[in-house]
Amino acid sequence: MRFLITAGPTREPLDPARYLTNRSSGRMGYALAGAARHDGHDVLLISGPTTLDVPPGVDFIQVETAQQMYDAVRDMLDGVDVAILTAAVADYRPVAYSEQKIKKQGERMVLELERTPDILGSMRSVFGFKGTLIGFAAETQDVESYARGKLERKQCDMVVGNDVSRSDIGFDSRENEVVLVFPDHVEYLEKDTKEHIAMHIIEHATIIRPK
Amino acid sequence: MRFLITAGPTREPLDPARYLTNRSSGRMGYALAGAARHDGHDVLLISGPTTLDVPPGVDFIQVETAQQMYDAVRDMLDGVDVAILTAAVADYRPVAYSEQKIKKQGERMVLELERTPDILGSMRSVFGFKGTLIGFAAETQDVESYARGKLERKQCDMVVGNDVSRSDIGFDSRENEVVLVFPDHVEYLEKDTKEHIAMHIIEHATIIRPK
Q1: ipTM
Q2: Chain B contact for A166, CB < 8 A?
Q3: If you count Cβ atoms within 10 Å of the first and of the last residue's Cβ in chain B, which end, N or C, has fewer?
Q4: What is chain A written as a DSSP string?
């Protein structure tokens, strides 16, 4: 099967030096790419900036901004059976970009932000993607209910929820403990390495029938 | 001699997931710490988040925000002969921090920012530092004149200016080409590895007499 996986944060620049971003090591997405490739699938990984090595045999596109990731996903969807969007895409970006480094002004500054394009939300409605669609929800409260809301709004087949407020499984950690939310049931995976969690998710991904 | 060196970016969080930061690999500061240690000096490196290894024999304090870096520098200045502040400290931070991940609202959002404490500018006037003070100026235009302005305003003995708009020597690159601005003269260093540039700067640092 052909997998498309997104990973890492995006960076939304104000000027050449400053940017807005999200905490994300990219580990979960890279582990998923490695696990899918290990199982013999074709894998394309589209990633924001991380310090991780691309797993052997995985095709790779490097992006920086949410817009670049949106464009890359849209352009590479042809023939994809399973899309797993793990990237921590920045929701907002500065409205204006300054080519020169902005000099310090007063004690206060107001930064105007606008929404970035919604990649997961565009998969069905804009890109017409018919394959298996898996989203991620990194939350600090009510993880399962936010994950279910995301599943329904974005027409996913599965949403993986995790509680990033817990320091043992949060950002940058090597372990994770997740809840898999499906349209008709929920499954809890015990705390484990991101590599083992990835293997479980890839197994599920290959047997789900897209709606 | 005793050196205090700052390096890396700082991160200024809006909520547990999102933050504002500056591009900075930390390489120049880590190279300076390694070069100073190699020359037999006592070195304390105070660094924001980077992926670099701390040079052997260098004391290390990890920080995240500009405020934490400010506090660490102030608390560790006792007995320091030379302070080299290379960190790309964020100038502004969000006024409000949300303990819970902020949910997406409308198409636009306004982020209110306030100035972070000015570490370099506090060295003489607030901390009463009497040793040799070296600052860095990463600029995208008029590098030498901005560096000279910084030297004067912040009462430095030397400011190292570099042009980060050039992709060959800018953020994340392994080489640099800098101008050393002193109160009474200027010196241009040719493009070289950050390690070689660091050796030159450390040599200068040990012979400058603080004003």
Answers
A1: 0.90
A2: no
A3: C
A4: -EEEEEESB-EEESSSSEEEEE---SHHHHHHHHHHHHTT-EEEEEE-S-SPPPPTT-EEEE--SHHHHHHHHHHT-TT-SEEEE--B--SEEES---SSPPPP-SSEEEEEEEEPP-HHHHHHHTT---SEEEEEEEESS-HHHHHHHHHHHTT-SEEEEEETTSTTTSTT-SEEEEEEE-SS-EEEEEEEEHHHHHHHHHHHHHHPPP-
Active site residue B22: yes
Q: Which among A10, A22, A24, A116 is annotated as catalytic?
A: A22
Q: Which residues contact B107 (CB under 8 A, 6 or more apart)?
A: A114, A115
CB of B115 within 8 Å of any CB in chain A? Answer: yes
Catalytic residue of the set B6, B10, B22, B25: B22
A138 touches chain B (CB under 8 A): yes
Phi/psi for A140 (5° steps) reads -110, 0
Is pTM beyond 0.80? Reply is yes
Looking at the predicted structure, is the pLDDT value of residue A184 above 80? Answer: yes
For B144-175, the pLDDT digits (tens) are: 999 999 999 999 999 999 988 887 877 778 88
Tokens standing for residue A15 = 């000027």
Closest-approach residue (CA) in chain B for A105: B115
- Give phi and psi for A73, each to the nearest 5: -65, -50
Contact call for residues A160 and A139 (beta carbons, < 8 A) = no
